[in-house]
Amino acid sequence: MSRRPRNRPPVDLAGTTDLPVLLPAADSLARRAARERELGAALPRLDWRHGLVLLAVLLVSAGVAQAQAGAGREPVLEVLLRWMPVLLRGFLFNIVISFLAMAVGTLIGTWLGLMQISLLPPVRVGSWFVTQFFRNAPWLVLLFYCMFLLPFEFRIGGLVIPFPDWIKATIGLSLPVLANVSEIVRGAVNSIPSGQWEASESLAFNRRQILWMIILPQCVKRMLPPWMNLYAILTMATVLASIVGVSEMMTQAGRVLAAEDRPDLLIPIYSFVLLCFFVYCYPIARWTVALERRFQVKL
Amino acid sequence: MDWSWAFDWARGLYHATGINLTFVYDSFDRDRLARGFMNTVYLSLICLALSMVIGVVGAWLQGSKLVWTRRIVQGYIQFFRNTPPLVQLYFFFFAIGSLMPTHENRFGFQEPMLDNFTWAVISLSFFAGAFNVEIFRSGIEAVPASTIEAAEALGYNRLQTYRYVVLPLAFRVCLPALNNNLVNLVKTTTLAYAIAVPEMLYMANQIWSDSVNVPETMTFLLFAYVFLVGLLVWAMHSWERALRMPGYGR
Asked: Is B114 a member of any domain?
């Protein structure tokens, strides 16, 4: 019978103080560092004004392009409207990839995170190694790895299962996600006060029951904001798939530009791409901030 | 040191199993990969140094009394924080790079003034620098005025207060956030692949295109990056632990 999870740091009362040694800026910096360490990337800080700036850039550049092109050519906004279905279908693809990668990453990452707090040393060390490995590998290299090394179809007997490039990209993007989810889960479990473990042990729960009925339900609240932040980072990372040739929005934008062959369209089309990502990510960012504020641990 | 046993082993491995480690036994591929590795290290080191300089200067400018100086620095941070680094790289290389004057090289071709390596350095340094400005500023803000007053009361002059009291404290406060940013920067150097900077990913790509040994080179590449980043993470964490302030935080 285990008395106390060994992998959690003991509460070090001797090293803490109530005196304000440093100003609140130090605390906010430390919190930010801890959050970024969990996510493995820095978060953008979105503001509604950014959306306005993007819209302004789109309209102004369209106007400038229109003025330069002269009367004989099709208006820029009309061109944009004509290609809108293609671009938006590309964007939908980004969202589908991000959803699937997040789902796969969360499923595997949660198990990996729970393995990291296992009482068996081999399981703990093994899952720690896998987590660190995928956390420290650059996203682009993992993406290349999956794109080139997974087969384009699987043959099981006579059955041929096709494996298109976007599925491979999804797998490639889910690898860093699962490592970061694993860290988020581990961090959340470690942030639950040890009193919770001890109290539930004294009520004769076994380890599985403690984890599933007491610790994890409390963790969900703490994991939700970083998990959503990770999703925002993943969504923005889906454009990396354009480097390896998946037909998502960035690739489609390049194709539209090639088809139109008008250099004046460059800025309007790319600012439209940025605007789409902003419109999608901004509500998520606001919601995350609101959740963070609501779930803030009060000590 | 004699490495011929390793070359023979790799050649034997190829004949026996078909695992083709050209970057071990073929001197041309070996040199290419080594150059790529060194370029990645070189690119990372230059960007690390420049981004720190940008961070310090930016943090200093943000404390300026002039409103517009502060606004410009704020705008710079907002721009680089909220756009993807790949877009920034393209913007610098294709948009600004094409506006730069060109000069004739010795083969009689027009050559841009700054090459792609320089643009990668500039773009990545500004990207990481934007984060560093905020980090350094919060670090300096975290030092209470009472600590500075105490130093003054002990007879330190302004420079000494800065050198012996403010900076050591601020640096320790900054370090965890700074580490994350620098690790992130090293990972982001792979994006330089997109503008054909001959760093490790690009060189590996050329090797597997020429020698058709994608799985071998790819696996090596993945492990090389994990090794590089892991080394940096480990070094920074031990530095962080060594500089830990007793009595502050956990």
From this structure: yes
Q: Is the CB of A145 less than 8 angstroms away from the CB of B222?
A: yes
| pTM: predicted TM-score of the whole model, two decimal places | 0.81
Check if A21 contacts B (Cβ < 8 Å): yes
pLDDT digits (tens, 9 = 90+) for A149-194: 888 878 887 888 888 888 999 999 999 999 999 999 998 898 888 8
CATH of the domain at B125: 1.10.3720.10
Tell me if A133 is assigned to some domain. Answer: yes
Indicate the number of domains in chain B. Answer: 1
Is residue A19 assigned to a domain?
A: no
Residue A89 touches partner B, C-beta closer than 8 Å: no
Q: Write the single-letter amino acid at B189.
A: T
pLDDT digits (tens, 9 = 90+) for B193-224: 888 889 899 999 999 888 888 888 888 888 99
Task: Determine the Cα–Cα distance for residues A131 and A182; give it in Å rounded to an integer.
Answer: 7
| The most confident of A5-9, A285-289, B72-76, by mean pLDDT | B72-76
> Which domain does A220 fall in, by range?
46-151+159-295
The answer as to whether B20 is a domain residue is no
String of b and e for B107-143 (b: at least 16 CB within 10 Å)? eeeeebeeebbbbbbbbbbbbbbbbbbbbbbbbbbbb
Q: What SS3 state is found at A261?
A: coil
Chain A residue numbers with beta carbons less than 8 Å from the beta carbon of B75 are none
Which residue in A12, A20, A28 is closest to B250 by CB distance? A12
Q: In terms of CA atoms, which chain A residue is nearest residue B192?
A: A140
CB contact under 8 A, A25 and B142: yes
Total domains, chain A: 1
